[in-house]
């Protein structure tokens, strides 16, 4: 859970870390995808008591404090197709069933004390479960999930759905997901950012999708980190002053061609780091200067922090622009008078 705490802090080299993660994730994703394509007719392999004995650990007191039970289970990479046996292990709090061939997680509905769930690299088509009152961290990465319905756990803080087949986010109810602060949707097939109206969200990862613009995120007032790398975004509309906590914005590998689009990020009061590498606009000679002219409070663009000299120069340009704007209204009445006299 300490990893989740780390996500809440702004890291100046997050884009570099993300690149390493992307490369690793892409390799893992390809491995899972190829394995899934080899055969969908897996030999039936149900979870057995012997497997349970091997995978159980962490002996703790049960709820009434009068008995003890193992609360952690790791049964990764066992070719499992059925975990029906888990219905009897109601005291489990930490469960890892990754890298199996599971298509059904419904036995987990009986684990009402579950805090942590990892089900990566299976054959799941849905992350739907009954409301689990204590579930805080859930990962369903690299499955075949096509939607975000049926996720309504009130204490869920981190949800990982990367590497699936989700086209549109639906069913994420802010009235139910009242604790969700990190949502990972990297490497899906999203063509819209609509449906992510989760005001408590702090970290949103939407890299490697099919997005052309940002929409429906205007009210995410607690969002600090937004990753939109490797999409097809051309315009920077969709950001608003209501996004008052946003500090880190990664737009690397998109299709922003016009430097004028940067003016649309002016209203983000706490934006400190912007990544625009591998966009057409970065080929412009004055790209770095123009970004600072448009976003005065920016501290870092791509991998480099701004120097004081650059700040002073950008301020001079802004001052000249202000003076020119002030003079323009004075000139206009003269031209109107001239027109009336003719």
From TrEMBL:
<protein>
    <recommendedName>
        <fullName>Leucine-rich repeat-containing protein 23</fullName>
    </recommendedName>
</protein>
<feature type="compositionally biased region" description="Acidic residues">
    <location>
        <begin position="325"/>
        <end position="342"/>
    </location>
</feature>
<dbReference type="GO" id="GO:0062177">
    <property type="term" value="P:radial spoke assembly"/>
</dbReference>
<dbReference type="InterPro" id="IPR050836">
    <property type="entry name" value="SDS22/Internalin_LRR"/>
</dbReference>
<keyword id="KW-0677">Repeat</keyword>
<feature type="region of interest" description="Disordered">
    <location>
        <begin position="306"/>
        <end position="342"/>
    </location>
</feature>
<dbReference type="InterPro" id="IPR032675">
    <property type="entry name" value="LRR_dom_sf"/>
</dbReference>
<keyword id="KW-0175">Coiled coil</keyword>
<keyword id="KW-0433">Leucine-rich repeat</keyword>
<comment type="function">
    <text>Essential for sperm motility and male fertility. Plays an important role in the proper assembly of the third radial spoke (RS3) head and the bridge structure between RS2 and RS3 in the sperm flagella.</text>
</comment>
<keyword id="KW-0966">Cell projection</keyword>
<dbReference type="GO" id="GO:0005737">
    <property type="term" value="C:cytoplasm"/>
</dbReference>
<dbReference type="GO" id="GO:0030317">
    <property type="term" value="P:flagellated sperm motility"/>
</dbReference>
<keyword id="KW-0282">Flagellum</keyword>
<feature type="compositionally biased region" description="Basic and acidic residues">
    <location>
        <begin position="314"/>
        <end position="324"/>
    </location>
</feature>
<dbReference type="Pfam" id="PF14580">
    <property type="entry name" value="LRR_9"/>
</dbReference>
<feature type="region of interest" description="Disordered">
    <location>
        <begin position="1"/>
        <end position="42"/>
    </location>
</feature>
<comment type="subunit">
    <text>Component of the axonemal radial spoke complex. Interacts with RSPH3. Interacts with RSPH9.</text>
</comment>
<keyword id="KW-0963">Cytoplasm</keyword>
<dbReference type="GO" id="GO:0036126">
    <property type="term" value="C:sperm flagellum"/>
</dbReference>
<keyword id="KW-0206">Cytoskeleton</keyword>
<dbReference type="InterPro" id="IPR001611">
    <property type="entry name" value="Leu-rich_rpt"/>
</dbReference>
<keyword id="KW-0969">Cilium</keyword>
<feature type="compositionally biased region" description="Acidic residues">
    <location>
        <begin position="1"/>
        <end position="30"/>
    </location>
</feature>
């Amino acid at each position: 859970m300490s990893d989740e705490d780390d996500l809440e802090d702004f890291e100046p080299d997050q884009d570099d870390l993300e690149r390493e993660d992307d490369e690793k994730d892409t390799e893992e994703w390809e491995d899972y995808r190829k394995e899934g394509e080899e055969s969908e007719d897996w030999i039936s392999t149900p979870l057995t008591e012997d497997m349970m004995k091997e995978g159980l650990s962490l002996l703790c007191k049960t709820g009434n404090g009068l008995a003890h039970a193992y609360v952690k289970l790791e049964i990764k990479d066992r070719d499992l197709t059925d975990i029906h046996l888990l219905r009897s292990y109601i005291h489990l709090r930490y469960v890892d069933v990754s890298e199996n061939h599971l298509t059904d997680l419904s036995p987990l509905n009986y684990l009402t004390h579950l805090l942590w769930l990892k089900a990566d690299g299976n054959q799941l088509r849905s992350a739907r479960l009954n409301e689990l009152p204590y579930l805080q961290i859930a990962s369903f990465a690299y499955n075949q999930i096509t939607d975000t319905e049926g996720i309504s756990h009130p204490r869920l803080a981190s949800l990982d759905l990367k590497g699936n087949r989700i086209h549109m986010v639906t069913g994420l109810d802010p009235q139910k997901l009242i604790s969700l602060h990190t949502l990972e949707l990297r490497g899906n097939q999203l063509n819209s950012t609509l449906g992510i109206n989760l005001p408590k969200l702090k970290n949103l990862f939407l890299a490697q999708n099919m997005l052309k613009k940002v929409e429906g995120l205007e009210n995410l007032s607690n969002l600090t980190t937004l990753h939109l790398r490797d999409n097809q975004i051309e315009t920077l509309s969709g950001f608003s002053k209501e996004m008052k906590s946003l500090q880190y914005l990664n737009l690397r590998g998109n299709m922003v061609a016009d430097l004028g689009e940067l003016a649309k990020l002016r209203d983000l009061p706490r934006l400190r780091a912007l990544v625009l590498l591998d966009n057409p606009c970065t080929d412009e000679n004055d790209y770095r200067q123009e970004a600072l002219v448009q976003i005065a409070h920016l501290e870092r663009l791509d991998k480099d922090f701004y120097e004081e000299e650059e700040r002073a120069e950008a301020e001079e340009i802004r001052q000249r622009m202000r003076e020119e704007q002030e003079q323009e209204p004075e000139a206009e009445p003269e031209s109107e008078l001239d027109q009336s006299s003719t």
